[in-house]
Amino acid sequence: MNKATSGKILAKQVNKGIQNALETLSTFSQVHLLGLRKIHAIIKAVGSTLDMFIAQDYERESTKGTGFLGARYFLVNAPADIKRVLQEEATFPKHRVTAWIFKPLIGASTLSAEHGAKWRAQRNHVENVLREITPEVMLPRVYLAMNKAIKTLSIEAELGRVSASKIASELSWDVTCQFLFGISSDQIDISQDELQNFAKFEKSAAFAVVLYQTGISMGLLSFLFHRKAKAARELINRIILNLKDTETPSAFTVLKRLVGNKFQEEKENSNVLDQLTCLSLPAGESMTVTTTLLLYLLGKYPEYQHRLREEANKTIKLIGRKDLTQAQLKTLVFTNCFLNEALRLYPPIPVLYREPASNVQIGNVKCPFKSMIFVAPWVLHRHKSYWTKPLEFNPERFIGNRHKASDEGIANSIYIPFGLGQRRCPGESLAKLQLIIFLIEIVRHFEVITVDNIAPEVVGRISLKLKKPLFVKLRPIALGIT
Ligand code: HEM
Fold first, then answer.
1. I need a labelling partner for 443 at 20 to 30 A (CA). Which of 22, 78, 136, 267 fits?
2. What number of H helices and E strands is found in the chain?
């Protein structure tokens, strides 16, 4: 074969490869891309699996398969299949790459195990620790962090617009420090740059997840992506070391529970660091994006904001003190619906990744061993078959479960902000407690006003991220009971 012929064959193959990749993208996103936009879309999809779905009109009810650069992906859409994939742990373990990318950050802790005995043991350990963080232990700390945040915000509010993203990340990390270490984040002087290390890790992890499936060598992937994890882990390590010279906190903390009375000798133990980093990543990142988006939604829907304020003030007046108990927080029906609806439209973990343990059939579709199975809360929560006017923000749809998916069986598997099955989020009640208190305290102290009326653009890393910082204005409100 002469050079010109082999060149033509090669060019044909490359062209075919590109066409395949483009087809994949357009079947997933159902957009017809032209010229440079095609290339841009490929780059975006590699950085964020969510971008594969973001333009979809969310109508499909069966599993959809596609390929991308030689890899096979399946998006599961039917309620019964979702239940099966998320509940049959042994048939559909967590995808090995998502477990692998976490390892340099969180070592041998829960998130980094695919499934089986090793994961079960870690999970039991985490659940036992979290069970001890009862509302009685946690509520005073959340109120403490919230009061501090309100004071800072009152000063910042005078200066004009405030960064919702910054408020959210500072508050989330303050609460995380309270429950992990029993101290305020001020005491350890965490900079915004250091907090960004978790987000940077997630960005590189999202690339690694997609590239792994294309057959790139693990060695190269480790070189490219694992080092990002070190900087994030270093923050938690620094906090543990900083605590060395201080007294062991007397009240319950996750740190104390993990090392018992041997705090001084064992706090550098890598298992303790693994567990603490494992809890700080989801706690910090999922909570930050949710808190930011809650501020956006409050500003965007002043009528709902007004209802939240009325509900909070009425309850507090009735009870005569502002620090409500967990049972009292649950009686705030509209506030809980507002939070549920925010988590529906913006699920902080937009895509869950699973892998068939062998060749397996889902509905009519054959999913081969080593393919990747997506269950995407983002897609399910916006699906036309399961929700009335899915793209509308309407907290009322949750009052008495009045959304279209009224059959509990369906609702249980299509509304899954905290996942489903054995790997369901162990931090759910802690997260909800914090977010409800955040909503109450913000609307009682401030009127939240949007700065510009543009919907926030999001990108799916491991958790949902905002492409640009989000700003709001806060107008202080005179209070009765403080
Ligand atoms: C709005 C806040 C949060 C949301 C929406 C959320 C959502 C989720 C979801 C969907 C999963 C399951 C992932 C999968 O199945 O692949 C998960 C797992 C997990 N979450 Fe959360 N989470 C939140 C807050 C928290 C908090 C505050 C903590 C810590 C106290 C936490 C700790 C964890 C851990 C350790 C896992 C891994 C469980 C395992 O793999 O067995 N999360 N989270």
1. 136
2. 19, 11
Find the residues whose C-beta lies inside 6 A of ligand 1: 94, 110-111, 123, 126, 278-279, 282-283, 286-287, 290, 348-349, 352, 417-419, 423, 425-427, 430-431
The pLDDT, as a whole number, for residue 323 is 84
pLDDT value of position 24: 45
Mapping DSSP to helix (H, G, I), strand (E, B) and coil, where does residue 64 land? strand
466 bridge partner residues: 458
CA 379 – ligand 1 centroid, Å: 18
| Residue of 110, 425, 430, 461 with the most ligand 1 atoms within 8 Å of its CB, for mutation | 425
Distance from the CA of 435 to the center of ligand 1, in angstroms?
A: 14
Whether 81 contacts 356, CB under 8 Å:
no
Q: Helix, strand, coil shares of the chain as percentages rounded to 5? A: 60, 10, 30
Domain boundaries, the chain: 1-47, 48-476
Cα–Cα distance measured from residue 160 to residue 365, given in angstroms and rounded to the nearest whole number:
55
Side chain identity at 372, as an amino acid letter?
A: M
C-alpha separations of 323 from 20, 147, 406, 418 in Å: 58, 11, 34, 26
CA 440, CA 334: separation in Å to the nearest integer? 11
Two tokens, residue 80: 């019964």
Rounded CA-CA distance 133/136 in Å is 8
Among left, alpha and beta (phi > 0; psi -120 to 50; other), residue 412 is: alpha
CA distance linking residue 233 with residue 278, whole number of Å: 9
CA of 315 to the centre of ligand 1 (A): 30
The pLDDT value recorded for residue 236 is 83
* pLDDT score of 260: 67
What pLDDT does residue 29 have? 41
Crossing angle between the packed helical segments 227-242 and 96-106, to the nearest 10 degrees: 40
pLDDT in tens, 412-445: 788 999 999 989 999 898 899 999 999 999 999 9
What number does CATH give the domain 48-476?
1.10.630.10
Name the residue with tokens 């899915």: 390
Other beta carbons less than 10 A from residue 325's beta carbon: 13
**Which pLDDT does position 23 carry in this prediction?**
43
- For ligand 1, atom 3, the nearest C-alpha belongs to 286
Model confidence pLDDT, tens digit, residues 150-195: 988 888 888 888 888 888 888 888 888 888 888 887 777 777 777 7
Query: Residue-wise over 14-49: b if at least 16 C-beta within 10 A, else e?
Result: eeeeeeebbebbbebbeeebeeeebeebbebbbbbb
- Report residues of the chain scoring pLDDT below 50: 14-36, 38-39, 46-47, 53-55, 406-407
The pLDDT of residue 32: 34
Cα of 59 to ligand 1 centre, how many Å? 27
The Cα–Cα gap between 163 and 173 comes to 16
